[in-house]
Amino acid sequence: MSEIQSTVEETGTILRTLKVTVSADRVKAGFDRAYRKLQGQAQLKGFRKGKAPRALLEQAYGHEVERDVLSDLIEEGCGASIREHGLDVVAQPRLLKQEYGGEGDLRFEVSVDIRPDVRLGKYKGIEV
To answer: What is the C-alpha to C-alpha distance for residues 98 and 106, in angstroms, rounded to an integer?
Structure first.
């Protein structure tokens, strides 16, 4: 199973909705990486710099870390899905829905505008 899976729905002539699932392993790896980085920088009372246990870091900085990690994973998953499906996106993706319960997979939906497919009609021989 791939770490990032996605599907595309056509919701308009130039509008597409990406439904993306980031695997629990990828989410866990993102949190582990973020807490390792934070552990080297954070200084909690009673612990030397870089020596605070993860449980205390989660207690003190959990909301900020979760927000940052999920934001990074959404950005990464969105980019991978756009490349995978070969979409020619012309504007920033807009987050429609996000589901993450603290453990397991991260699921989200984004809406993207793509370049319209323009077909020229008969234009040769027209007098101007």
So the answer is: 8
